[in-house]
Amino acid sequence: METLILASGSDSGDIAIFGLILFAVPFVVGWFTYRALYKRYRNQDQRYRYEHTTSAVRSALQRWDTFDRKNNRQRSSEIGGRNDDDSHVRADHATVREAQAPRVAQEERQAQAAREAQPARDAQAARDAQAPREAERPPQAAPPRADGA
Amino acid sequence: MTEPASSGTPPRAPEDPPASPAPASADDTVIDTTTGQDHGHDDCPKCGSTEVTRKGDTMSLICGFCRYEWVGSRLEDLHGLGDGIGDLVGRTFMSGASDITSAETLITLKCQGCGSEVVVDTGRSLEARCHWCRSILSINDKIPNGAVPDGILPFGISKADAIARIGQFAGKRKFFALKRFRAEFKPDNVLGVYLPYMTVDGNVTARFRGEGEIQTRRYTVQHGKTSTTYYDADVYDVAREFDLHIDDLIIESSASRSNIDNRANTNNIINSLLPYDVKNMVAFDSNYLGDSTAEKRDLNIDDITRKAHLQFLTMSRESIRNDLIHYDRGVRWTHEDMDVHGSRWATVFLPVWLYRYAERSDNGQVMVHYIAVNGRNGNVMGSVPINKARLWGVTALVTMLTAAVAWPLGAAMMAGA
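Output (structure tokens, whole complex):
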């Protein structure tokens, strides 16, 4: 690996930027103070670190490392989309398959007895057409009774 | 490292969309851990008394009548659980991990001493004392509601020790603690509880594909008044394939404990007590429970298979990290592919000393805070309710003090520039 510094410099502009940063510093310190104290009391980040504490023995490792291309003049010191440093971040394509145990051979099935033919169903008689219903009449007032009641 | 470590074509992972683990489909093999014992009296093998308790914090059981002592059988030795992970094919599970087929928690036992009927609430305990003849009645074999596990890890930390540890933990967090919490805090209220878990072994093959970069040059270029650092790198197609034998991953088998959501509960505290020394678990014997309560398992293997597989995948990724250090700019995995050839499941009760505090917020919501102690190694973790007014006040004070120093300095620099 080769390290080459072609030029560097600082002037009054940098000092002004540093001065602006100093203005922001109290808020950053306040934010970190709140976070640190909250974390100390609530411990929300605590969990079972199974990936570090569970025994796992690796074997039969096969590697393929094939040069593909050069990627020059990158501004970042890391590969884009890096995820090897956080094993909880899933890759774009993740597949898990659970294998089946070899099945126990099943007993040979016996041929089923032939079903007896059922008697053919009789066709249903055609229904008689019903007379069209009459529209319901509105209820009529009861006729006055002779006794005047 | 520029030469391929192995020739040939790297394995192609299936071009599936981001997929969730496949549902369980394997045939099952059951390891029988049933005892064949009837429920009821669990007598001293020497004198027949039911007054059997644990001897202090040891793994021994002792008869309170004739003082005879014996130790439960280690499940690992009994069933060879630590061996043959590479030979696992399909699902193997112990009887205690069988599917739950009954929701009934109350079981009525007939006392062999006096004939009276005694009800055991298996949702909380697996023992009850006969109210007439005072003999102890136990659930001595597996029952279909999932309450009886295959193994148990008895408490190794005494209650007094747990109280001291909880008191010390809370004592260091008094200043910002909620005023009511400080007033009501009584570590004597700690309870011993056995929580249900499953241990799972896995025989898996993992394949990963992606791109890795190795830095070849780093240089800084001046652009007028500013400068920029650039990096040159070689890009490699990277693939890895390997077998992984996972031993005793522990997973919650209670739905309420399994739900870890920091906004709604503090279950992460209990989760963080893991792992336990499950290699030392003994075959379940209700005499180990003593005065502690026990929470019933309510999840089946199918319910936690997805979680187990994701954790297998994470462990596979973690196990290959040390093989990638020469990719100093890192690796971007694009494909993860895992075959679970076999898994082996067992259920176990793990001991926790639990202090519980319910914080009722102004909007009526209740957040239960736990301070918990691992009943085996004494590790303590907890969540203490916060007096937010005091926390904000101190934060503001720190901010102002920092400003009192930084701002005049910044103003002077700006003026100078």
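Confidence is low (pLDDT under 50) at residues 1-26 of chain B.
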